[in-house]
Amino acid sequence: MDILDKILAHKKKEVEERKSLFPVKLLEKSIYFSGKTVSLKKYLRRPDKSGIIAEIKRKSPSKGMINKHVSVEKTSIGYMQAGASALSVLTDYHFFGGNNEDLKLARKFNFCPILRKEFIIDEYQVIEAKSIGADVILLIAAALPVPALRQLAIFAQSLGLEVLMEVHNADELNQNLHDAVDLIGVNNRNLKTFEVSIDTSKNLSAAIPDQYVKVAESGISAPETIVELRQYGFEGFLIGETFMKSSRPELACHRFITAVNQIDETKTVGS
Ligand SMILES: O=C(O)c1ccccc1NCC(=O)[C@H](O)[C@H](O)COP(=O)(O)O
To answer: What keywords does the record list, in alphabetical order (predicted)?
Structure first.
């Protein structure tokens, strides 16, 4: 059993418990449920932004505790002030130390696209995502059979949510391409070995059709990598640990984006 199998087995039980504790009828009463969403696709393409999706991530299966004392309010506002294009909030508690309140807090203090980083296997979690103020959900191709993934994606779009589909290889990519997916994320982290390689994004980039916004996920630790990945057509860059391992994640994000901008400026002057 790899880590994804373990997470999904746990998630199955958790979702059933949540369904009885917080029935759909209750979730639908949230002010966010019938509200408008903010488009991640559009924000990633805004020229005044970096393309960085900055993540709130307290701990992870690969790294253990990363940042126990993060303030979601301070960090999320600081990320956006630093020039991030969007936020990602891990809402899984058991493996990542997150929760729905984190996302609600991020929503309360920011007008920007927010990705609910979750292990979604059931329509209930899509309704929950909308009810807590998310704009985008993640669907992991390796987590679900193709028809189930497609159904969840169509359902999410019917609620006004965008769908970021995460793939690890060409097979997952080719099987799952369809109109209900808005963005394709290539995860550089191998979930069996936890090894990260930016080459995963580079190698898959050409196989992603132009209609999808390409997002490189995980293991991005150097500003130069953003500049390099842009040359492969990536417009979004999901970064968690590199910022969160600092006691001031928002400052780490600011320094990182400033460095990306400096590389861009140097290239412009030199060309
Ligand atoms: O981060 C993990 O260890 C992990 C393990 C198993 C499933 C998912 C995992 N991470 C979720 C993510 O996708 C990352 O938080 C996200 O891409 C940011 O990655 P990083 O910048 O490397 O923190």
So the answer is: Amino-acid biosynthesis, Aromatic amino acid biosynthesis, Decarboxylase, Lyase, Tryptophan biosynthesis
